[in-house]
Specification:
alpha/beta, Rossmann fold, 7-stranded parallel beta sheet
Length: 261
């Protein structure tokens, strides 16, 4: 098992991506701590993991509350001895479907500020814990829009670029303490409910079917398909594991070749 005896804190663990990552981490031997605002949603995911033989706990913590995040991480250390992995998968609450020329400033700024806020809070809190341990991995998820913008995405692509920037800065400041920081880049998973809604919206704007839009999008990738949630989770396992011990300040390309590095 690649994550045997690792303690992984997953912010946004009740979401589609967070849940997929948590299940895969647990299957690889990690103890997963699912963190979010809605305890019932987190507990449902945790119960699924425990039913499959994995180790899962939940914590109701607001990732925008720096003191609450700090307190919770200290509790994890006191209970389990370490925080080995921190993965921020908090939703950005972005609004798409209009040009930024026509979008109210608050709507444009919301995903950018959300991304900067939660990744700063969770990343720095994890960094302070991991410096003491002299080990740990901080993970984040960005999207292809950070490098290849397209029309009517609002502030989403800019928020994704900000996430990459924070990860690089954290990597610089934590590297000498043995802490790695890795960002995963996805082109979006069609089996995630959130992306399905976005694809449906963009298809309607273009006057084509949801299925046709996905085919057109997938045609731009080298593998002629989009990455599934399980594939993103598998890539996260590898980056979080000791098999990736020489990798930091990197963006792992999980776009099925939609972008080429």
């Amino acid at each position: 098992m690649l994550l045997h005896n690792k303690n992984a804190v997953i912010y946004g663990g009740g979401g589609a991506v967070g849940g997929a990552v948590a299940r895969t981490f647990a299957a690889e031997g990690a103890r997963v701590i699912l963190v979010g605002r809605t305890l019932a949603t987190l507990e449902k995911k945790a119960e699924e993991i425990r039913a499959a033989g994995g180790k899962a706990e939940t914590a109701q913590v607001d990732a925008y509350d720096a003191q609450a995040v700090e307190t919770h991480l200290n509790e994890v250390v006191q209970k389990w001895g370490s925080v080995d992995i921190s993965f921020n998968l908090i939703a950005l609450d972005d609004i798409q479907g209009a040009s930024i020329l026509d979008m109210p400033r608050d709507q444009f700024l919301m995903p950018v500020m959300n991304a900067v806020n939660t990744h700063y809070v969770t990343g720095t809190a994890a960094g302070r814990v991991m410096i003491k341990q002299k080990s740990g991995v901080i993970l984040a998820l960005t999207a292809n829009a950070a490098r290849r913008p397209s029309a009517n995405l609002g502030g989403f692509g800019i928020a994704c670029a900000a996430i990459k920037g924070i990860c690089r800065q954290l990597a610089v400041e934590l590297g000498s303490s043995g802490v790695r920081v890795v960002c995963l880049r996805s082109s979006g998973s069609p089996d995630a409910p959130g992306l399905d809604e976005v694809l449906t919206m963009h298809a309607e704007m273009q006057g084509i079917s949801r299925e046709e839009l996905e085919v057109n999008f997938a045609a731009s990738t080298l593998l002629k398909r989009l990455p599934r949630l399980a594939e993103v989770a598998n890539a996260a396992v590898l980056m979080a594991s000791d098999k990736a011990s020489a990798i930091t300040a990197a963006v792992t390309n999980v776009t099925c070749g939609e972008l080429m590095d």
